[in-house]
Amino acid sequence: MAKAFIRRYLPSPEQIREMKGLGFLRNRLSDPSLWHLNRRSASWAMFWGLFCAFLPIPFQMVPATAIAILFRINLPLIILLVWLTNPLTLLPFMYSGYWFGSYILDVPMLSWHQLEHLATRAMHMSDAPVDAFEPGLLQQLKPFFLGSLLLGLILGTIGYIGMRYFWRWHVIRAWHKRLAERLARKQPNASSSDPKD
């Protein structure tokens, strides 16, 4: 079934409870609906997990977990999808977000070197006083923020629709398989009715 197929790739409840940064939400993780997997919870987890993966903020697991608790949807699937953005995939995600935002706003795209420099400046925004910001930093970040949010919405919607169709396909396939097995059991054994040579 679809449930068993998806569960194979999900983190365990113990792994999630031990994650750093989720300590203040740990007492809310006992809700059984966060661990239940059905078509509704899996579809919404796809939407919110992909959306949160594209959020241009650090510690995306915190809002993802809060959303799972608020809407009572499958937490392991949301967490798995948020892990799509990690140190290895961060630059391609940033590039695609910036590219999409610059296309929407009709502003010139930055080079890889400029994007890397912009990412470094953005990561140190909290360390520097407000008057020490380089001029135009927030203006340069606007395409990145807009593109990331829009890509998260678009890919989240595709993930939601895709999961609903995947779940339905899996259920229909399992039903046809059971039906074929039932029909095969009902048919008499052809070899026993053949006359012996």
From TrEMBL:
Residues spanning the signal sequence: none
Record field: transmembrane: 45-71, 78-100, 144-167
Keywords: Membrane, Transmembrane, Transmembrane helix
Domain annotation DUF2062: ranges: 24-176
Source organism superkingdom: Bacteria
Pfam families, A to Z: DUF2062
Full protein name: DUF2062 domain-containing protein
Organism: Paraperlucidibaca baekdonensis
